[in-house]
Amino acid sequence: MMRFTSILVANRGEIAVRVIRTAKALGYRTIAVYSDADAEAPHVAMADEAVCIGPAPVAQSYLDPQKILDAAARTGAGAIHPGYGFLSENAGFARACEAAGLTFIGPRPDAVDIMGNKAEAKRRMIAAGVPCVPGYEGEDQADDTFIKAASEIGFPVMVKAVAGGGGRGMRLVDDTADLPEAIRLARSEAENAFGSGELILEKAIMRPRHVEVQVFADEAGNTIHLGERDCSVQRRHQKVIEEAPCPVMTDELRAKMGAAAVDAAKAISYRGAGTVEFLLGADGEFYFLEMNTRLQVEHPVTELITGLDLVALQIKVAQGEPLGLTQEDVTLSGHAIEVRLYAEDVAGGFLPSTGTVDLWLPPSGDGVRVDAGIATGLEVSPFYDPMIAKIMAHGPTRDVARQRLIEALRRTGLFGPKTNCDFLIDALGRPAFAQGEATTAFIDETYTADDLADAAPSPEITAAAAAIFYMLESNEAQARAFAVDDELMNWSSTGRLATVYRFGTPEAPEDVTVIAAGPDAYQVAIGDASHEVVLLDADPARCRLKVDGVTHDVIFDAPETGVLHISMADRTGLMRNLYAFAGAEDDSAGGGRILAPMHGLILEVHVREGQAVTKGETLAVLEAMKMQHQIRAEADGTVTSIRCTAGAQVPAGDVLVEIDVSTEEQ
Predict the structure, then answer these.
(1) Does residue 586 lie in a domain region?
(2) pTM metric for this prediction
(3) Where is the Lipoyl-binding domain (predicted)?
(4) Residue 499 and residue 491: Cα distance in Å, rounded?
(5) Quick one: residue 16, left, alpha or beta (phi over 0 = left, psi -120 to 50 = alpha)?
């Protein structure tokens, strides 16, 4: 094994920043790669060198092995760290690295091959004596074979792609009638995401915990585990909140699960960092789910409770050095919880969101860690995963870690695309999570559609927003004026002046009146109610104010005239002064015009002009941010126009299908 002094990170975003940070701290020369869309990204500026590898679409940049290898050759890189996602679990890429004389910082290609195919992985685990979920993992991929196997396994079953992960190519099916369509969609999604439509079936273990064990092995085969992580809080089979250790773990269960994970790694002669994932039932029985042959998104919670740098260990093992750790050396201290900050519309069914980051203001504090790859002014594009940052907290107990994390999220400013920040604060505070009882059914069982809907701003937030609008406009006016004394601000010889803002929507406007009652005090009238707002102090993006005697810390940003982002009292909102947009055309679509919810690729069009459709019927399938989204009719009617074609890219807000919804049944 050749020694190396430089590392090319074949990834982007927060993971590229994370890997580069450790590599630079260890004295390695670091090389970033980037697409056209990521030219200004933080990981590019952070690396010692950076190479553009193509256009924004991943197939033409981050997923093109030859472009990565060419960049390594141009910069004289000695090793490649794949991060997670993209080429991290591509055995062919690992072999190509070795053939090019580069060290692949990851497992041996054969191990990637075995565990990258869920069917083969499961067969190997059964042979190794690792407990597995009952299912079908045969080579016959005919629909009839799956239907017969499902009836033998018993519903509900999970249809899963043998390649990849992250919830893609996965469908939960409750009865035989829904199975053919689930197979079709899972196969299509898997082919587009991973290049393979091969599937397996598994018995769906209802309301389990998703518990994974971090394993590490060196070149000599010394294999240990670093404890477990609970990743049960998920939406669309993608993790949202992770923690270590698992809240219900016992020493006996950890020993059994850890031993099974080590056995799994040894069965395939594993090397480097890996994660063995299990489903843990309420009865304490656990079942092998899959093995991720790479670093995990959630690895920081293990770092926080073990004091180990997993990227540093990866590099050490890749250099051919021994781990330098035995199982007895591993100790777990305290508790750590991580949340994934997604650019997504929670009220819209957790759909990915895109747009310019108007403000990124990460939190800090005792036990708080932030891994992010974004910056103010950058674009959250539709081409990549919607996870844009991870926020973590560590504490001596689980509840201390949980409370620290809630406070960290309250101090987080992320404006522009819609995010799940408010949802995360709420989820961390829900009794089921606070008491350590969350399973993979947590979101479905805890939240109703009303819980997830966008809430109207409270009177307190509305009053605060109006006062901040007034403050910003006053500051701008003072900056334009010549020699106006601060003491004269908000003074008029004709008495107090009233400024009126119009919030809400054109259909339901709400007039809010602000009267300056002093240099930093305002009377805000909303309907018949009056609120007193006192500004205590202000920075460009933060202020502290009192609303009716209650003090609040507020994060805000005004990206354009008449628009204000505000985060206050666990709520983030966008306030628009409609008077600033007087005369602007109403672009609302209504039920008859079906718009693209985000920029993406049209994979399928399911209807034709003149066809009668019913509410909820699938009209088209859109691929965006690594997921397939079914575009459905919002009302009964007749298709009058199809404005999209399969294989075409469409921007967010583009009209896809027009439906005449005025047709009445005779």
Answers:
(1) no
(2) 0.84
(3) 582-660
(4) 13
(5) alpha
Q: How far apart are CA 515 and CA 497, in angstroms?
A: 6
Q: Which are the contacts of 84, defined by CB distance < 8 A and separation ≥ 6?
A: 11, 15, 292, 294, 295, 296, 297
User: How would residue 582 be classed by pLDDT, with cut points 50, 70 and 90?
Assistant: low
Q: Does any domain span residue 443?
A: yes
Residue 497: pLDDT band (50, 70, 90) is low
Answer whether residue 75 shows pLDDT above 70: yes
How far apart CA 59 and CA 66 sit, in angstroms, is: 11
Q: Are 516 and 632 contained in the same domain?
A: no
Beta bridge partners of 228: 213
Is residue 601 within 8 A of residue 579, CB to CB? The reply is no
165 shares a domain with 38: no
- For residues 459-468, average pLDDT: 96
CATH number at residue 19: 3.40.50.20
For 458-505, the DSSP string reads PHHHHHHHHHHHHHHHHHHHHHHSSS--GGGTT--TTS--EEEEEEE-
340 domain residue, yes or no: yes
Domain extent, residue 255, equals 109-131+210-333
Provide mean pLDDT across the span 271-281: 95
Assign 388 to helix, strand or coil.
strand
Q: Are 234 and 119 contained in the same domain?
A: yes
Q: Is the pLDDT confidence value at 399 over 60? A: yes
Query: In terms of Cα–Cα distance, which of 7, 11, 8, 75 is closest to 38?
Result: 11
Tell me the Cα Rg of the chain: 27
Q: Do 469 and 364 share a structural domain?
A: no
Residue 193 has pLDDT above 80, yes or no: no
Same-domain pairing of 221 and 326:
yes
Of 581, 601, 619, which one is at a domain's C-terminal end? Answer: 581
